[in-house]
Amino acid sequence: MTRVMGLDYGSKTVGVAISDPLGLTAQGIETITRTQENKLRRTLARIEELAGQYGVTEIVLGYPKNMNNTVGERAEKTMEFGEMLKRRTGLPVIMWDERLTTVAAERTLMESGVRRQNRKEYVDMIAAVYILQGYLHLRHNQSASEETAAQNENV
User: Fold this and answer.
1) φ and ψ at 14, to 5 degrees?
2) Which of 62, 82, 102, 121 would be a feasible disulfide site paired with 131, CB 3.0-4.6 Å?
3) The 26-33 sheet, strands edge to edge
4) Do the strands 56-63 and 26-33 form a parallel or antiparallel pair, or are they unpaired?
5) CB 31 within 8 A of CB 142
6) What sign does the CA torsion over 106, 108, 110, 115 have?
7) Which burial class, exposed, middle or buried, applies to 84 when counting CB atoms under 10 A from its CB (0-12, 13-18, 19+)?
């Protein structure tokens, strides 16, 4: 089977998650940090390195639309980053609506008892897990409903 990578792209960090080989669950791998927003060369190189290491065949990139469904500056920067990822890795990049994933990640860390000063260290990686898990869940449900439809045709 193949693995999928989930990314939560931020102005100074990128949270990284990888699926299991069956494509059912997402695990947080790391948070890539950079000092300046537009210094992406090392970030892209690290993502490419992780993709090769894990045998990734597609990337799911969190797409931060505004709550009213409009596309703001952050979403535009994310689209540009997605294009850079496609060129750098040669892999398909799926844009995934990530609204409220960071809020959910913060809540998970709070409920897990992670101290406030330590949460920043993990929040992007946990958000990447939520992004990837949402995508894997949809993909799994689609293939299950396609199987059911095929079985119903054979009845």
Assistant:
1) -135, 115
2) 62
3) 26-33, 13-19, 3-9, 56-63, 93-97
4) unpaired
5) no
6) negative
7) middle
CA–CA separation, 9 and 11 (whole Å): 7
Hey, what amino acid is at 4? V
Phi, psi (rounded to 5 degrees) for 9: -90, 120
The answer to whether 136 touches 1, Cβ cutoff 8 Å, is no
* Structure confidence at residue 67 (pLDDT): 74
Q: For residue 124, which of 44, 40, 13, 39 has the smallest C-alpha distance?
A: 13
pLDDT at 1 over 70: no
Structure tokens at 128: 């990447």
- Decide if pLDDT at 155 tops 60: no
Q: pLDDT digit string (tens) for 103-125?
A: 677 787 778 777 777 777 788 88
Degrees to nearest 5, angle at CA 63 with 35 and 74: 50
Q: By the 8 A CB rule, do 133 and 25 touch?
A: yes
Residue 149's pLDDT is what? Answer: 64
